[in-house]
Design a protein that fits this description.
The complex is a heterodimer of chains A (171) and B (179). Chain A has 3 domains: 3-86, no CATH class; 98-124; 131-171. Chain A has 171 residues and is mostly helical. In chain A, 76% of the residues lie in helices and 0% in strands. Chain A is flat. Chain A has helices spanning 3-15, 24-34, 40-52, 60-82, 88-96, 102-130, 134-148, 154-170. Chain A contains 8 helices and no strands. In chain A, helix 1 (3-15) runs antiparallel to helix 2 (24-34), helix 1 (3-15) crosses helix 4 and helix 3 packs across helix 4. The longest helix of chain B has 39 residues, at 60-98. Chain B has helices at 6-19, 24-38, 43-55, 60-98, 100-104, 107-135, 142-156, 162-175. Chain B has 8 helices and no strands. The mean pLDDT of chain B is 84. Helices cover 80% and strands 0% of the residues of chain B. In chain B, helix 3 (43-55) crosses helix 4 and helix 7 packs antiparallel against helix 8. The chains are: A mainly alpha (171), B mainly alpha (179).
């Protein structure tokens, strides 16, 4: 597949969605159903690879690009993933001059607190998948306490968790 | 609020990009905490970046990174943030795509991945608590608690989308202005 076409198809999928995996139906329609350059199994592999690794869920489009056209395809997928992100900058420029008004500050704080509620809500399904035994419950509780008490850099929390997972495997 | 230098900002996005598992929400939670610890970004700017990222097409967390990078260092900061948070993770996802059949059945990889996701969940909840606690003015806890709890219930029980929840919170914030 032509790299420009690959990029345009993937950027169309990312531009018409508002979260990482929401672009999946468009990707499936274009790549699996219409053009038949991917199978459903390959699509599932791409989604799984994106979820196993670090980074956003939307990173699966890099994997799609790689499956379709190797490393150049992965680059096209990466470019399609990051392109829409920069649309936020004109919006920030527009809002910048108006951000100091008391009512604007109140709206911003309300959005911030909503963010805390949304984070808590998003953690529930993840918790159901991740906390399945006493060890994962312990990792969850220690991570929560360390982050909430600001005692440790988050990198060390993650590295510590990986180490515990590694040690747990030995037993 | 000190203006941060380019290298430490890029380093932060780089290490968050390669060390945070579980998708965009844990990434935002950890970035929020690290910005707060370093005094790099005001709560108001964080809130604008967070809210607008939900309105931006594509992967929300990348729009959030572009916005916070732009606030701290201009257009160079936006570029550095997005590139740092995506390039190493993209290289890794290509490798994982190749190795998927191997890693999907590897108990060692699963053990480590499970531990990382459990830590990501703890991190998200810790960051949510920190967000409310640090941004609540002394004696003014009702608005933060009401909006946070209300947003949680709207998202979790009523199943509103994040965009709808943020819009509802913005309307509340517009009419409920604290002195």
């Amino acid at each position: 597949m032509n790299l420009v076409v690959l990029y345009l198809l993937l950027v169309k999928a990312t531009l018409t969605s508002f979260s990482g995996l929401a672009s999946l139906p468009v990707v499936r329609s274009d790549f699996v159903v219409r053009r038949q350059v991917l199978t459903d199994r390959q699509l599932s592999t791409a989604v799984a690879a994106g979820r196993i690794g670090p980074g956003p869920n939307g990173i699966y489009v890099v994997s799609i690009g790689y499956i379709v056209d190797g490393i150049p395809g992965a680059c096209a997928g990466w470019l399609a993933m990051i392109t829409p992100a920069f649309l936020i900058i004109p919006m920030l420029r527009f809002l910048g001059a108006r951000a100091e008004h008391p009512r604007a500050r109140s709206v911003a704080r309300a959005v911030l607190f909503a963010g805390a509620g949304l984070l808590a809500s998003a953690s529930v399904p993840l918790a159901r998948d991740a906390i399945t035994n006493p060890l994962s419950l312990g990792i969850f509780a220690v991570s929560f306490l360390l982050i909430a008490s600001e005692r440790l850099d988050s990198l060390w929390v993650m590295l510590g968790a990986a180490l515990v997972g590694l040690i747990a495997f030995q037993f | 609020m000190a203006r941060p230098r380019f290298t430490p900002v890029t380093n932060l996005f780089l290490r968050v990009g390669i060390s945070v598992f579980g998708g965009g929400d844990p990434t935002i939670a950890i970035l929020q905490r690290e910005f707060y610890r370093r005094d790099w970004l005001s709560p108001e700017k964080f809130a604008i970046a967070f809210g607008l990222a939900r309105l931006t097409p594509g992967t929300n967390v990348l729009a959030f990174c572009a916005a916070t990078g732009w606030y701290m260092l201009g257009i160079g900061g936006a570029l550095a943030a997005v590139l740092a948070v995506t390039i190493p993770a993209s290289i890794l996802v290509v490798w994982l795509t190749r190795a998927y059949d191997l890693t999907a059945h590897s108990r060692l990889a699963q053990s480590v991945a499970n531990a990382l996701v459990a830590a990501a969940v703890g991190t998200m909840l810790g960051a949510a608590l920190l967000l409310v606690r640090t941004q609540s003015k002394r004696g003014h806890w009702l608005k933060p608690v009401a909006i946070s709890l209300g947003s949680f219930l709207l998202a979790y029980l009523v199943k509103l989308t994040p965009l709808q929840v943020i819009t509802a919170a913005a309307i509340v914030g517009f009419y409920w202005v604290e002195s």
